[in-house]
Design a protein that fits this description.
Largest sheet: none
CATH topology of the largest domain: Na+/H+ antiporter like fold
Helix content: over 70%
Subcellular location: Cell membrane
GO molecular function: potassium:proton antiporter activity; sodium:proton antiporter activity
Protein name: Monovalent cation:H+ antiporter, CPA1 family
Strand content: under 5%
Radius of gyration: 27 Å
InterPro entries: Cation/H_exchanger_CPA1, Cation/H_exchanger_CPA1_bac, Cation/H_exchanger_TM
Oligomer: single chain
Membrane topology: Multi-pass membrane protein
Length: about 525
């Protein structure tokens, strides 16, 4: 990478973080604001080309791994049929439909390249949809399906893309050859992912060092992706398998590893997603400049047709799949019409599609390559700005809510806290009984404090069922405790800082004390 390219990426990163910060403060979906900002400034700044290798080998692995690490393996297993039908079936269906329509619109375009375009724009990126859905309380099952689809659909699409490009470059490829390549990529990704998952799990059991473990976790997605891609298996599936396996076993790690891991991946996601969505918008000028030999109305018509087919094909497949699930699934898991509509509208495309389009080999005629890139760009932008901006209003309009789930979660948490309290107190009483002689006054005070802390944690969980207020809207004891203790912590911090400024306390000691106070405040926020 030359210095100019590095400076461009640095400026993009800084600007993207600033825009994302504004979006967070205003409560707006950051991906959509970043794309819009990129579109607005693209004609005003030097071209910032999107490097496919940068996206596929640098941005994609950690984003996939973080999403898998934070996903629930058990919930994904519950919706595996729906996820499979969307991440494999829908991608194949969209590839076929879009490929045929593009071939009808552009008969001079080779059929293999038409199907390559279908594979490029087939996989949705659920980042924007999930961000909006979580903020507006989309039911957990719908969110799980969207997350599961986005974890696995890239593997299907990229495999189909390689088959289509291979057919164009090397001649005809039979259906069985394409199916064999797909199965090898999927199976290879699973095998490599499991092998690396077992290896890293074994390693983590022997390190017990939060700093070392989290540093290794930063390397895991790149190791899994490169290991799989080096043997032409699916790097996407390998990364997802490792993330799901280690995420399901995170409870076996130390508390320090979990605390640091949560912070590390939140920062990583925020940073990479900001850059990725800003880069999407900044491709406006490079994409338009390559279009030659077509009138503006022709180009606009082709773009509108491909965008419409992409959106409609998802609705057709989702409603067909929903009907199938209603026939095969359990009665209590049947999706409602409202949930099906939302799932159908959550088809925003992302940077993986653009990266694949930019990776089209130079052996493809420049005129065809420019058209494929333009149609990909307009589909990505169209789905993000049309579906993304209307997605919140659709959720509110259909009155799809997770309020009942949230209440059930709080009730389950309160019951679990009560059971944990009883187990903890029983262990405390056992330890006290094993001591020789009666405890002294200091020991009694410590034991009483432990009992009171356990009781307060259980009380907090039950109070949360009432929204943190008591009868008549009065402040509950736990809420009062948290409010007063937060004010006390702030006063304590001011004293420590003053003593540091007076050179009566070293900076290293200040950091240790502040970390202790910060952890306590984090517990209060929880």
């Amino acid at each position: 990478m030359n210095p100019t390219m590095g400076l461009q990426l640095l400026l993009v990163a800084g600007g993207a973080i600033g825009v994302a910060a504004v979006a967070r403060r205003k409560g707006w979906p950051a991906p959509l604001l970043l794309v819009a900002a990129g579109l607005l400034i693209s004609p005003l700044v030097p071209s910032v080309p999107l490097q496919p290798e940068l996206v596929l080998f640098v941005f994609l692995p950690p984003l996939l791994y973080s999403a898998a690490l934070d996903s629930s393996y058990l919930r994904l297993r519950d919706v595996k049929r729906a996820v499979g039908l969307l991440s494999v079936g829908l991608v194949v269906f969209t590839t076929a439909v879009v490929g045929l329509v593009v071939h009808l619109l552009l008969p001079d375009l080779p059929l293999a390249l038409a199907f390559a375009l279908g594979a490029i724009i087939a996989p949705p990126d659920a980042v924007a949809a999930v961000a909006v859905g979580r903020r507006l309380g989309l039911p957990r099952r719908s969110l799980t399906i969207l997350i599961g689809e986005s974890l696995f659909n890239d593997a299907t699409a990229l495999t189909l893309y390689r088959v289509a490009i291979g057919a164009f470059v090397g001649g005809a490829v039979s259906l069985w050859e394409g199916l064999g390549e797909f199965l090898f990529a999927a199976a290879g990704g699973v095998v490599i992912g499991l092998a690396l998952a077992f290896a890293f799990a074994w390693l983590f059991r022997r390190t017990r060092d939060s700093l070392v473990e989290n540093t290794l976790m930063l390397l895991i997605p790149f190791a899994a992706y490169l290991a799989a891609e080096s043997v032409h298996a699916s790097g996407v599936i390998a990364v997802v398998i490792v993330g799901l396996y280690l995420g399901n076993r995170m409870h076996l790690q130390g508390f320090g590893t979990r605390l640091v891991s949560d912070a590390v991946w939140k920062v990583t996601d925020f940073f990479l997603e900001a850059i990725v969505f800003a880069l999407i918008g900044l491709q406006l000028v490079p994409v338009i400049e390559g279009i030659t030999g077509y009138s503006p109305w022709q180009v606009a018509g082709y773009a509108a047709a491909v965008l419409a087919v992409t959106i409609v094909s998802r609705f057709v497949w989702v409603f067909a799949v929903t009907s199938l699930i209603k026939l095969l699934g359990r009665a209590d898991k049947k999706p409602t019409v409202q949930q099906t509509v939302i799932l159908g509208w959550a088809g925003m495309r992302g940077v993986v599609s653009l990266a694949a389009a930019f990776a089209i080999p130079p052996t493809v005629p420049e005129r065809d390559r420019a058209m494929l890139l333009f149609l990909t760009f307009t589909t990505v932008i169209g789905t993000l700005l049309i579906q993304g901006t209307t997605f919140p209003a659709l959720i509110k309009r259909l009155r799809v809510s997770s309020e009942q789930e949230q209440y059930e979660d709080r009730l389950a948490e309160a019951a679990a806290q009560q059971a944990a309290l009883e187990a903890g107190l029983a262990e405390l009483e056992r330890l006290v009984a094993e001591q020789d002689g009666e405890p002294d006054e200091i020991q009694k005070q410590v034991i009483d404090q432990l009992r009171e802390k356990s009781w307060r944690r259980s009380l907090t969980a039950w109070e949360r069922l009432g929204g943190g207020t008591g009868h008549g809207g009065a402040e509950t004891p736990s809420s009062l405790y948290r409010r007063l203790r937060r004010d006390m912590l702030q006063a304590e911090r001011q004293v420590f800082v003053r003593l540091r400024d007076e050179r009566r306390l070293d900076d290293e000691v200040l950091r240790e004390v502040m970390a202790s106070l910060d952890f306590e405040e984090a517990i209060l926020e929880r």
